[in-house]
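Lecture notes, unit on protein representations.

Consider one protein chain, 389 amino acids long.
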Amino acid sequence: MFRFTTAGESHGRALVAVVEGLPAGLAVEVEQINRELERRQWGYGRGGRMKIEKDRVEILGGVRHGLTLGSPVALTIENKDWANWTDVMSAAPGDAPEEKMRRVRRPRPGHADLAGGLKYSSRDLRDILERASARETAARVACGALAKQLLAAFGCEIRSHVAQLGGVPGSPLEVSWEQICAIPDDAPLRCADVEAQERMVALVDETKREGDTLGGVFEVVARGVVAGLGSHASWDAKLDGRLARAFMSIPAVKAVSIGAGVEGASLRGSQVHDEIGYDRDARAFTRPTNRAGGLEGGMTNGEELRVRGFLKPISTLRRALASVDIETKEEQRAAFERSDVTAVPAAGVIGEAMMALVLCEAMREKFGGDSMAEMRRNFDSYREQLRAY
C-alpha cells in the first residue's frame, strides 16, 4: 500500500508529512525535493508570503545514507513566519491577549471560512482558514517529489505548463512535450507561448492595481507511463477517477479535464477516439493522436498522460467582497491578510505532485516489491509481457 498524509497550519510551527509504501533502496535526492518546493513558490503574481518563506525539507525518518528503508518516510518543512505568530498559533493551553489573537469573524466568499465554521462550530474562523490555506500544498509537493524520484527510476517524467490565465489566450494552449520542456526555468508564468505570456503578465499587473484576482488553466503531462496502470474492473480502481479526485483536491481547482475532455463532448466519435496501429520494429501498439489523454477504460494506454486543472480566481481579494460578521450578523467586508493575484503556475507544480502520487500508488499496486530490486524485476517482467503481446 502506498499513501501519504500531511499535517500543519499555514502559520503554525511547521508542515509535516508522512509517506508510506516506498520500497527499500530508493535513492533520495533532498535537493531535488527542495527544487520542487522552490518551483511551487515561483510565479508572477505571487504575494508577500513567498518573500518570507524559503521552503526547505528535513527528513526525520525512513531514509538512511540517502536510501529509503522501506519504512514510513517522515518530512517536515519549517514555517519561517511562525516567529510572528507564536502567540496566535500556540498549541499550549491558555488565553493570549485578545489583541494578539487575530480572530477572524468575517468569512471570505469562495473560501472554506464559513462552511468550516458552521461544520466545526468555531466562532474564530482562523481555526478553519489556517488548515484550509494553500500553504498545506508545500507538504504535498515534498511528498510528490519523492514519488517523482520513484517514477523516474522506471522511466517516467512529469512536467506542467500554464495553458491559459484570466482568459488569455482565448482558448487553452495546445503544446507538445518538447515545447513544455523548452520553457525556461525563469519564465514568469511557465507558459510555452512567449507572446501569450507577455499578455498574461500585463493582465496580472492590471488586475493587481484593481485589487482583484485571476484564475486559469494548467496542464500536467506525464511521459513514459507504462500501459496498464489502474483498472476497468471496479469504479474506485479507475485511474482517471483517481486523478480527477487528486486534482480536484488542489485548492481553487473547480474542474478537471483529461485529454480532449470537455471539447470532446461536442464532437463526433470519429473526431475523438484515437485509432490504433502497430509498429512491428518496436513491437508496440501506436496511436497517431492522443485525444484520450493516455487513459482508456480507467487504465493507462502507454501514451502521454495529459490532465488539465481549471483554477478559479483566488478567494482572498484586496478589494474585499461583501460578507457578514458571524457574531453581530451585520454586513461587513470580508477579511484580508495577504493574497496572491494568481497562483496558476504554482497550481501546475502541485498538479505534478498529485499526478506523481497517484501514479506512484498505481505502480506500487501493479508491481509491488519490498525493495527496489524486487520491484524492478517485476516491472521488467511485465515489460517483456507487453512486448510479447
